[in-house]
Write a structure and sequence with these properties.
Strand content: under 5%
Largest sheet: 3 strands, mixed
Order of helices and strands: HHHHEHEE
Bound molecules: zinc ion
Strand order of the largest sheet: 1-3-2
Number of helices: 5
Structural class: mainly alpha
Number of domains: 1
Radius of gyration: 40 Å
Distance between the termini: 25 Å
CATH topology: Helix Hairpins
Length: about 260
């Protein structure tokens, strides 16, 4: 193993740190998009409900009209039959049937009138809700767009960081890479750390035995901290709290210096 391999590994670690941050930020966009859209969705869903009820009432009204027409035909036939009855008993029977159907016909009319009234009111509500949801839609649109733009910025930065990571990995030796990958996969944020000048592990600060310090300083084999397990190297840069330039997560002044954020 070489020192340049360790430096490359440190760069991968730095990039991974930033990639994880951005991936977490990316996850938060679905709820944020839903939230931005909520005012319009609420009105649209209310509108949908009223439209559905309106359609149902219109269908009911058409059904009533058809049934009224059928009753009219039946009434007409019975009235004709009334002119041809043979006796009183037959006449009484026809009259009874006629009055039943006329009464049912009247009830249909009554129901139709009520329905027409309800339909008229529902149409007014639909009109009002259509207007309000169009307004709400127009209002949420810029908010949504802002969130979408921000998400796209993160997507682009992630793509770039992943490309840089691939590049940095080319400089990492096979053994180091295997150790790094298994640590990284288990969610460990720090895999490689600097052996500090006083001989402490740069990650957990426990002292590394002298003989092992020498081996680390000679840089001939991959050595891990006995206390915390990170790979130790003597020739790494001191880690900053924010390893890679924190670019556009918080949006707004989104000038990203993604080129060579190797920090100071
Ligand atoms: Zn340690």
């Amino acid at each position: 193993m070489t020192n340049s391999s360790m430096a490359a590994l440190q760069e991968v670690q730095r990039l991974d740190h930033r990639i994880r941050e951005l991936e977490a930020a990316f996850q938060s966009f679905e709820p944020r998009l839903a939230e931005a859209e909520a005012p319009a969705l609420e009105l649209e869903s209310e509108l949908g409900g009223v439209q559905q009820r309106l359609a149902q009432m219109q269908a009911d009204l058409r059904r009533l009209e058809r049934s009224g027409q059928e009753k009219d035909v039946r009434i007409q036939k019975l009235e004709e039959r009334l002119t041809r009855v043979q006796n009183l008993r037959e006449e009484a029977a026809v009259q009874t049937e006629l009055s039943l159907i006329r009464r049912a016909r009247g009830a249909d009319d009554q129901e139709s009138l009520q329905l027409m009234d309800q339909i008229q009111r529902a149409e007014l509500v639909v009109e009002e809700l259509e207007r309000r949801s169009a307004e709400a839609r127009a209002e949420v649109e810029p908010n949504q767009q802002a969130v979408l733009d921000e998400r796209q910025g993160i997507e682009e930065e992630l793509a770039e960081l992943r490309a840089r990571r691939d590049l940095a990995l080319e400089g990492v030796g096979r053994v180091e890479r295997r150790v790094y990958d298994s640590f990284h996969a288990s969610g460990r944020p720090v895999v490689v750390a600097r052996l500090m000048d006083d001989g402490a592990c740069g990650h957990c600060y426990s002292m590394v035995p002298l003989q092992i310090q020498q081996e680390i300083r000679s840089g001939t084999s991959l050595i891990r901290c006995e206390a915390c397990g990170v790979i130790l190297s003597a020739d790494l840069e001191v880690e900053e709290p924010h390893p890679v330039e924190p670019a556009s997560v918080a949006s707004a002044d989104g000038e990203e210096d993604s080129g060579g954020a190797t920090a100071t």
